[in-house]
Write a structure and sequence with these properties.
Blueprint lengths: L12 E3 L13 E3 L3 E7 L5 E12 L3 E6 L8 E9 L2 E14 L5 E7 L4 H17 L1
Antiparallel strand pairs: 1-2, 2-4, 3-4, 3-6, 4-5, 5-8, 6-7, 7-8
Length: about 130
């Protein structure tokens, strides 16, 4: 039942399957604006950033997040994404691109990994910390 003057919930909007430059995407994307917490690792397992952002779209194979800093493609990432109703989901992935938008904001393309590259980086970090403690 609609209440006059009250915003009504909207369904997520499905966005085109083609990506930048007309490149065909593997999975259909859904436009979605939700909080995201990112932890980023370099190839040696060093944590290089921990930041907050907002998703812009998401699919089975990746997502786009708007953040306030430049990050380098190829870095591993652990993304904690809001899943609605107070729930969260954790996805591992690789940064595929980072594009400057405006006013200090960047659009970050993350490809989700079946076997998480970020988990390998986190494991390398744990091994290094364990070795340093010994």
């Amino acid at each position: 039942m609609e209440t006059p003057g009250q915003p009504q919930p909207t369904s997520p909007r499905i966005v085109p399957v083609n990506g930048p430059g007309g490149k065909r995407r593997r999975h259909q994307r859904v436009e979605l604006d939700l909080p995201a917490a990112l932890t980023v690792f370099d190839a040696e397992g060093n944590q290089i950033a921990q930041l907050e952002g907002r998703t812009r779209d998401i699919s089975q194979s990746g997502c786009r997040v708007v953040i306030t800093r430049m990050l380098h493609p190829g870095s591993g990432v652990v993304a904690v994404l809001a899943a609605g109703r107070g729930k969260r989901t954790v996805r591992y992935g690789t940064i595929r691109n980072c594009t400057y938008l405006e006013q200090g904001q960047h659009s970050l393309g993350i490809e989700f990994e079946a076997i998480p590259a970020a988990a390998y980086a986190a494991q390398a970090l744990m091994q290094r910390l364990t070795a340093e403690a010994a």
